[in-house]
Description:
Keywords: Acyltransferase, Transferase. This protein is α/β, with parallel strands linked by helices.
Amino acid sequence: MxxxxxxxxxxxxxxxxxxxxASDPAEVVAxxxxxxxxxxxxxxxxxTRSADGTWQAHAWVKQGILAAFRHSETVExxxxxxxxxxxxxPARQMVAEDGVRVVPGGTSVRRGAHLAPGVVVxxxxxxxxxxxxxxxxxxxxxxxVGSCAQVGRGVHLxxxxxxxxxxxxxxxRPVVVEDDAFVGAQCGLYEGAVVRERAxLAPGVVxxxxxxxxxxxxxxxxxxxxxxxxxxxxxxxPAGGDFAGARRLSLYAPVIxxxxxxxxxxxxxxxxxxx
Length: 275
């Protein structure tokens, strides 16, 4: 599959330049179906963690997902209230054998999204194509797990959490939440932000891949990545300039106030941090 979608992307560039004929649509659709099935069963992922801890996006997977949209027709789908979407990436039909509990009430899991056994999804939530949610994780109400977002084992995504999707550019790292992290209500993670294992985000923390995080424990600044075990709360810092100073304006600044130890659970450490 990797070679096919890499070649297809190169061929699309040549087509745009008028130097290559179009691919066989039936062949593309067949490979798209194979890719989506592999994403659903977890044998293929949009991004994986290297031995050194860095997360590597797999461009060919994103190229295959984009091909699914390009080669789809817009069709009416059998869905409560009616729906119109791309023919190759409709909602998945979850079954008991998947080992996932999807509580009724408006949740939709799109084709190409992986939910491991033991995952619980509360309504209404949406999990987009290429998303990966590992075993034992909780997806609470009104949560978005965007395209290609990677969620580890035993993660808790609290109510109204938003994990932004990252399809293009194809080499861009998706949003990542590693094992046993706790993401508080109404947090937003976008543009390749990474939350390392056992980290805790207090409600309302917003991060992108370029957000500066202020570590009060180690007296340092970190860009776009929450360290393992860190407890992050929303904070502020003074805005620069005379105009801002005269009006006492401040800017949003996420702050690490402590680190979890092996004996503290997420709810206990978060309660202590917010007191």
